[in-house]
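Journal club prep, shared notes

We agreed each person brings one worked example of a sequence with its structure written out as tokens. Mine is RidA family protein. I'm keeping it raw so we can talk through how to read the token line rather than staring at a rendered picture. Sequence first:
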Amino acid sequence: MAVTLVNPTGLPQIDVYQQVSVATGSKLINVAGQVAWDADGKTIGEGDLAAQVEQCYLNVGTALAGVGASFADVVKLTLHVVDWTPDRMSELLDGIARASAKLGVTPAAPASLFGIAALDVPEHLVEVEAMAVID
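Then the structure, token by token:
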């Protein structure tokens, strides 16, 4: 495996991700921001943040698999959430948990979450980007 996830002593222990990833592979993979579209371009879960987060993570998983990678190879996730407020965290975590169950993994790479005003189309509530490293 080309990626080791670490929670160094002296930093907070976050439930949903590790603070640091160490990559030793030779191929860097950048996955474009994935929104809640299915393979036909139809928005999944209109108005439902958890459903959209789930679809975004499934799309990231599909993108990674398409180039021979998986969530185990992810070194960084970035989430952009429309009209984010901390009280929506349970919806976000629910979507991640549902995607994790379907993917058979728990994405735990370092992550950043940004609240934003809007995405490409009004129906989209979240976008997830990923960086991965493989040998």
